Amino acid sequence: MKNTISLIFLGWLTLPVAAHKGGPVVVEQARIKLVPASSPATAAFMVMRNESDKDVRLIHARSALARNVELHTMNMVSGKMAMRPVKDILIAARGSVQLKPGGLHIMLIGLKKPLKAGDVHEIWLEFDSGQTQTIKATVES
Ligand SMILES: [Cu+2]
Questions:
Q1: Which of 13, 56, 60, 108 qualifies as a FRET site for 37, CA 20 to 30 Å off?
Q2: Distance 139 CA to ligand 1 centre (A)
Q3: pLDDT digit string (tens) for 85-108?
Q4: What pTM was estimated for this model as a whole?
Q5: pLDDT tens digits for range 20-38
Q6: Number of independent structural domains in the chain
């Protein structure tokens, strides 16, 4: 009887801890493409891994580096690569998604300062699961 009660108590205790863990999406290899100071915009790339059994969508991104941050994809339009904003980026349950050149990316528009290789900038991400996360992305050529 005493054991049962302790187990229940422990289970109850771990719940709030799990809720504050941040969330199931793990972000790796975050980087920002180095562009000349004259360039008004650049893109950020990364790998996002969903360690949960539920689909999660990236719905917003922000950064102090840029006035406006959008989620973009790239497709062929009339034989040319063109990018367009997307509402969200799906990370399937137990799956991962690669934001990479020529595909999905985070567009940083209206850069507030020139980029330098090796500099690290923060990008704030929000997921539809309620998870928010600030990641560090390195400027790379
Ligand atoms: Cu773009």
A1: 60
A2: 16
A3: 999 999 999 999 999 999 999 999
A4: 0.82
A5: 445 799 999 999 999 999 9
A6: 1
